């Protein structure tokens, strides 16, 4: 994980503790395309100042993760995909796997909508994820010049490994 991503998540955690209005604005920003809700600018633009233009993947990823974090501010060590794998196992629901596969098929233009839905599911079960890692992943996924196929494979490994680990733990008990 990059230091910049970790600093941004630490900043969001600070907002969580001292400025509930900021989190409300960031949550509301998920209703718009990343980086287009002016109410989110005061909280994110300071971290996006090095972005070349408004469609810069890093800038878009910052706005997306800010909104997702505000929706469910539970930081954890596990990756986003592993968190979904845990959820899949806990709920024993094929629809979770179907949503995850749909997420893997998303492109840069619609990934935030799939992530928003997935974060809502994680929030309902109180399962957190590593937002700094998600930010780094999204920077790559949303880049117009990158091929996210390796990232998709990595997410699939994390998802199924977490689902399998949860199954093995349950079987051992």
Main beta sheet: none
Give the uncertain stretches in residue-range form: none
CATH architecture: Orthogonal Bundle
Strand content: under 5%
How many distinct folded domains? Answer: 1
**CATH homologous superfamily name?**
CRISPR-associated protein Cse2
* CA-CA gap between termini: 34 Å
Please identify the structural class as seen in this structure. Answer: mainly alpha
Work out the number of β strands.
Answer: 0
Protein name: Type I-E CRISPR-associated protein Cse2/CasB
Quick gist of this model?
With 173 residues, the protein is mainly alpha-helical. The chain is 68% helix and 0% strand. The termini are far apart.
Question: Would you write up a description of this structure?
Answer:
The protein has 173 residues and is mainly alpha-helical. The chain has a single domain (3-172), classed as Orthogonal Bundle (Peroxidase, domain 1). 68% of the residues lie in helices and 0% in strands. The chain has helices at 3-18, 20-28, 41-44, 57-71, 80-91, 94-104, 111-125, 131-141, 149-172. The radius of gyration is 16 Å and the shape is globular.
Note the main attributes of this structure:
single chain, 173 residues, 68% helix
Summarize the helices and strands and which ones pair or pack.
Layout: H1 3-18, H2 20-28, H3 41-44, H4 57-71, H5 80-91, H6 94-104, H7 111-125, H8 131-141, H9 149-172
Helix pairs in contact: 1-4, 1-8, 2-4, 4-7, 4-8, 5-6, 5-9, 6-7
